[in-house]
Amino acid sequence: MNQKELEITQYDGEGYLPLIDFESWRVAELRYCEELEVENLKSMQKHNESDEVFVLLQGEFTLFLGGQGETIGEITAVKLEPLKLYNVKKGTFHTHTPEKGSTVLIVENRNTCDDNSPEIELTGAQKALIEKLYQKVNR
User: Fold this and answer.
1) Strands 25-31 and 61-68
2) 66: left (phi over 0), alpha (psi -120 to 50) or beta
3) pLDDT above 90 covers what percent of the chain?
4) Which band of pLDDT confidence, cut at 50, 70 and 90, is reported for residue 64?
5) The model scores a pTM over 0.85
6) CB burial of residue 14 (10 Å; 0-12, 13-18, 19+)
7) Backbone phi, psi, residue 100, to 5°
């Protein structure tokens, strides 16, 4: 196959991996990894220069939102439904829990990195709330 006409890529590992970068956008996959199990979540992050789109391709995935601003606000949880697009708006704190066997497609700005994506540690109360919300949406 001519790579100038078609690029084919896939990912079978754990965690997050960018698969295609082009001009201003990036497509990545996120899969289960132990550090993202709900009881292991330590922080929330926001992207200051990009929305971030999540598309559940298979399995189960819970997205946690923490509002916009300089600190984490009200925390909510959303269990993603397959093949729906979930667009986390620029500046919204978020974290997530992909279950074993899940695959999530992510689309974001190519320049999304730690320099423009501040992270805030979760308090004990916020961790407890996230675990409670997780249990509620995954009944």
Assistant:
1) unpaired
2) alpha
3) 96
4) very high
5) yes
6) middle
7) -55, 135
